[in-house]
Amino acid sequence: MTRCKILRRWILFCITLLLLAMPAGCASAPGNPSAVTLTPEQIQSDGNLVLVNAAHLWPENYEPESLISLIEERPQGLVGLRDGSLTAQPEAFQALVSMLEAAKEAGYTGYIVLSAYRSYEQQAQLYQEEQQDWLSGLFSSVSQTAAPGASEHHTGLAFDLGVMEGDQLISGFGDTPQGQWVNAHCADFGFIQRYAEDKQDITGIIDEPWHYRYVGIEAAQAMTASGECLEEYLNMVD
Ligand SMILES: [Zn+2]
Asked: What is the model's pTM?
């Protein structure tokens, strides 16, 4: 074993000890020990405006009832999919299809859906992978991956978008012409760019120019006009 590996293991051991010594709330509910878990009834009544974040958690054993397969429902040739298992809520995906059809008409193509609905277990795995990178856990005050339950991908109303050029994924979606078109027109199709740089202190999530959330046209246009993020629009800033 190299010295580097020994040192790394020793540091991980110390971090584990530190976590064990912390109050249960800190270790089990990263970000917000006083978080509440949504009930299925509340999720259903909130509909497209359901708020899921570090303070309002998605319940562990609940998934949206009407998820559809994107590969089965997408119009031929309109949008790529990172893999064939992606699912989402039908109203949100139909809105995405309408938006990307309008983009195509305006001359913008090459879009790919990188992520859509995520189960609690899938989010837990992503989160665990991030936590294993102990540097990000120790030195980043803003997590790059929401904790399980805190991701709005659980709603089936959110999409991470990218742009493909041939078989290459272009980095920096927000800087591409396709990304800028979506950013300028998304509200007309019921979407908001959910995590903006200037709202980071409210959302607790870094700027994510690729992450779009369906909220319905009326709410999306109102938020775009007022410059509010979802927490502000719902008057639920913690
Ligand atoms: Zn996302």
From this structure: 0.83
Alpha carbon of 152 to ligand 1 centroid (Å): 8
Residue ranges per domain, the chain?
31-233
Which residues are marked as active site?
208
Q: What is the pLDDT of residue 101?
A: 98
Q: What is the pLDDT of residue 2?
A: 53
From ligand 1's centre to the CA of 212, what distance in Å?
A: 7
- Coil/strand/helix, residue 183: helix
At 46-98, the pLDDT tens digits run 999 999 999 999 999 999 989 999 999 999 999 999 999 999 999 999 999 99
The better pLDDT of the pair 238, 39 is held by 39
- Using an 8 Å Cβ cutoff, are 237 and 231 in contact? yes
pLDDT tier at 137, thresholds 50, 70, 90: low
Domain 31-233: assigned CATH number: 3.30.1380.10
112 CA from centroid of ligand 1 (Å) = 13
50 CB-near residues (< 8 Å, 6+ apart) = 38, 42, 43, 155, 157
Spatial separation of the C-alpha atoms in residues 186 and 100, rounded to whole Å = 10
Q: Classify burial at 161, counting beta carbons within 10 Å of its beta carbon; exposed 0-12, middle 13-18, buried 19 or more.
A: buried
Long-range contacts of 193-200 (CB under 8 A, 24+ apart): 194/152, 194/158, 194/229, 194/230, 196/229, 199/229, 199/231, 199/232, 200/142
